[in-house]
Amino acid sequence: xxxxxxxxxxxxxxxxxxxxxxxxxxxxFKIGVLLKEAREASGLTQEKMAEKLHTRxxxxxxxxxxxxxxxxxxxxxxxxxxxxxxxISIR
Amino acid sequence: xxxxxxxxxxxxxxxxxxxxxxxxxxxxFKIGVLLKEAREASGLTQEKMAEKLHTRxxxxxxxxxxxxxxxxxxxxxxxxxxxxxxxISIR
DNA sequence: AACGATGTTCACGTATACGTTAACATAGTT
DNA sequence: AACTATGTTAACGTATACGTGAACATCGTT
Lengths: 91, 91
Hints:
The structure is a homodimer. Helix content of chain A is 73%, strand content 5%. Chain A is mostly helical. The first copy, chain A, is globular and about 35 Å long. Chain A binds chain B through residues 24, 27, 31, 34-35, 38, 67-73, 75-76, 79, 82, 84-91, and chain B through 24, 27, 31, 34-35, 38, 67-73, 75-76, 79, 82, 84-91. The first copy, chain A, binds a DNA duplex through residues 45-47, 54-66, 69-71, 74.
């Protein structure tokens, strides 16, 4: 019986971890898509974008695919390179 | 608003550096103030905020005063600790 | 099939954000 | 004045984002 409780506890814990991990990954996904859409809306390839930011296309790919862990300054540069501006608020 | 005056007074140590770095510094200032106001709106001191984020008050101070170069994940944690959410858009 | 354009992933070195401690500043209180 | 609460700054070690080059995967085109 205590085995069952332990199992349930463990199961719930893993569910929480899964959900938290999922939400974090989803946020990264959202921001990455935001950046990708902004770039494509300007008709730029990752390579052209890389030139504007004085870096390489691999870096652009990484930014768009791991956007949760980029710096705000990087996000700012990305937007500026597209002639656009960031809007950040806390709701 | 006296915060802004103190900030500018501080930045005026060198007018040249002040002008050159103003835009970037001002963005950091804006985000820092955003975070600080969000924290104070929840009635938290930097020390209480530090407890929620499992870190120290000095880290909170640094976040609020050098906010341009923090990671998105850090910004996310800050908002989550206040039970709030980030809104990021590119305009 | 071969090719070019575009995007992804990996590995490695460098730059820098973050965690922590300590010292210091500045209010307000006793 | 001494004390308390709050916030700032500097220094140091660690974690990780970033710059870079190379290899690879998918496309559509010839």
